[in-house]
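Need a sequence for this fold. Nothing fancy.
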């Protein structure tokens, strides 16, 4: 049985706690590896070593740090296929989708090459008589990243690029469900020239996370995962005075207006609802057609598209649309929620519950399901299903559709399909949701913009990647200086204006 160890001080380090977790191949249902789970003592030791290593790294000039990022871009491109293969085998997503996972992370490493420019402070001369004032951005020290299973390359890279390029050391605590790719990323960073100890990958569960949260050394926590854990981490990190940005779950609405190109909308919905088996925080999981006629026509167009979807293992070739979900527990939860939808009176137009794949009967496959006539009180509407299920809730008017999206507790992403610029503009301006697509189904901003949801989808005040990430991973120091020039004013006891 393969073991996945921690990555400490530039090399693999077997765990000492005696605790491990199973890593599955979701397509076959087999356990393919055991990942070490760190104890508090192991986590504390990894943090202490990171703090030592950070001193030199923080003092390395930003351009040299940026060169590590440059080299990292080459290495990620070099090893893309190898990493994607491992990623697919532990996560279950298709091979092209696994490459997309790495690519979207790589783009943030490319952005982080701009660290010298992004870290420049501000300066004004002559703020008062002989007085100059300047601000600088300095690294925080040791920071932590706690990441989810659904993007095992992208989300760690979103954290590592800006945090490391800013001069911090990082403790990465990846998801224990697909832990191998984060180790591969750490090995590549070493090859790219990152000094040992500056990036420590410590695998684990709640015990390891709590050790991060209670550490006096860790200065900031970047978390991505489900909302209850995001809120827990935000609160516990704040209790020890840490900076925290914690991104949570989602229930992304697509509003389909009567004037939309319904073929385009149906294609977009199918890709965004069922891609990666719906295990994306930007999945469109709710369709809100406006008007009965739009709804009827949309369902008519969706059904044959959904029935044609090819579900299979990543090894079955590039025409597979989506793979299995991550664990047997995830599968069970999705099927349970579909069941509640039926019980609570929604119409199950496409039923994926009995899906089974010959030769892969033990895999965690779930067929695609489509609900129509859902209502806001139903569990399938209120809960993030995180599976291949699209729920349709019909609205009579645009305002009713907007209100549905706005009243939902999650506010990660949304999309509107329309040919009317005025409606699209109104929607983008008024909705209380962090990322908006206009005729674009998964509006994931590019690396040089920022990514983050509102409401229960995000706790904290700065987003991921883009300029916000460099603000999150640095703190500002402002210096007011005056060099002796013969001015002798005597002591001042009031707040002085600089005149
Ligand atoms: P999760 O919350 O179960 O796990 C995320 C991380 O928290 C993992 O590293 C895990 O080990 C740790 N963790 C789990 N339980 C914990 C506990 N009780 N105490 C301390 N730490 C704990 O999430 P997941 O299932 O890995 O990922 C899926 C979720 O992530 C979905 O809700 C999805 O919407 C969300 N997500 C959000 C974004 C975003 O940017 N908003 C992006 C990707 C995924």
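Here you go.
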């Amino acid at each position: 049985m393969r073991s996945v160890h921690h990555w400490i001080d530039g090399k693999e380090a077997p765990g000492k706690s005696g605790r491990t977790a199973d890593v599955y191949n979701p397509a076959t249902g087999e356990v393919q590896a055991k990942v070490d789970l760190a104890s508090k003592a192991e986590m504390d030791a990894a943090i202490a070593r990171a703090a030592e290593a950070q001193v030199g790294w923080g003092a390395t000039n930003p351009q040299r740090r940026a060169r590590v990022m440059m080299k990292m871009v080459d290495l990620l491109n070099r090893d893309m296929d190898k990493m994607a293969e491992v990623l697919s085998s532990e996560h279950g997503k298709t091979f092209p989708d696994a490459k997309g996972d790495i690519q979207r992370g790589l783009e943030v490493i490319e952005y982080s090459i701009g660290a010298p420019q992004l870290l420049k402070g501000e300066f004004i001369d002559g703020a008062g008589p002989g007085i100059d004032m300047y601000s600088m951005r300095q690294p925080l020290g040791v920071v932590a990243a706690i990441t989810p299973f659904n993007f095992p390359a992208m989300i760690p890279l979103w954290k590592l690029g800006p945090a490391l390029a800013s001069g911090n050391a990082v403790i990465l605590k990846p998801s224990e469900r697909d832990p191998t790719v984060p180790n591969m990323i750490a090995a590549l960073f070493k090859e790219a020239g990152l000094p040992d100890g500056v990036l420590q990958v410590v695998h684990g569960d709640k015990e390891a996370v709590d050790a991060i949260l209670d550490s006096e050394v860790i200065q900031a926590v970047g978390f991505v995962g489900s909302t209850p854990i995001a809120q827990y981490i935000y609160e516990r990190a704040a209790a020890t005075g840490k900076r925290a940005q914690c991104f949570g779950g989602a229930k992304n609405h697509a509003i389909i207006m009567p004037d939309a190109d319904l073929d385009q909308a149906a294609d977009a919905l199918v890709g965004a609802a069922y891609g990666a088996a719906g295990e994306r925080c930007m999945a469109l999981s709710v369709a809100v057609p406006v008007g009965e006629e739009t709804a009827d026509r949309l369902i008519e167009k969706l059904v044959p598209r959904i029935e044609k979807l090819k579900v299979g293992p990543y090894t079955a070739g590039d025409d597979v649309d989506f793979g299995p979900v991550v664990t047997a527990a995830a599968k069970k939860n999705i099927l349970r929620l579909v069941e509640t939808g039926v019980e609570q009176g929604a119409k199950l137009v496409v039923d994926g519950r009995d899906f089974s794949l010959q030769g892969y009967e033990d895999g965690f496959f779930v067929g695609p399901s489509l609900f129509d006539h859902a209502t806001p009180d139903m569990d399938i509407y209120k809960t993030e299903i995180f599976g291949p299920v699209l729920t349709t809730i019909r609205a009579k008017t645009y305002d009713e559709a907007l209100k549905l999206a706005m009243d939902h507790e999650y506010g990660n992403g949304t999309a509107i399909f329309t040919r009317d610029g005025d409606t699209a503009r109104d929607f983008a301006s008024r909705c209380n949701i962090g990322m908006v697509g206009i005729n674009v189904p998964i509006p994931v901003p590019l690396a040089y913009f920022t990514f983050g949801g509102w409401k229960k989808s995000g706790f904290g005040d700065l987003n991921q990647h883009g300029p916000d990430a460099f603000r999150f991973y640095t703190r500002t120091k402002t210096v007011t200086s005056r060099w002796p020039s013969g001015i002798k004013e005597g002591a001042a006891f009031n707040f002085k204006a600089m005149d």
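For context: The chain has 16 helices and 23 strands.
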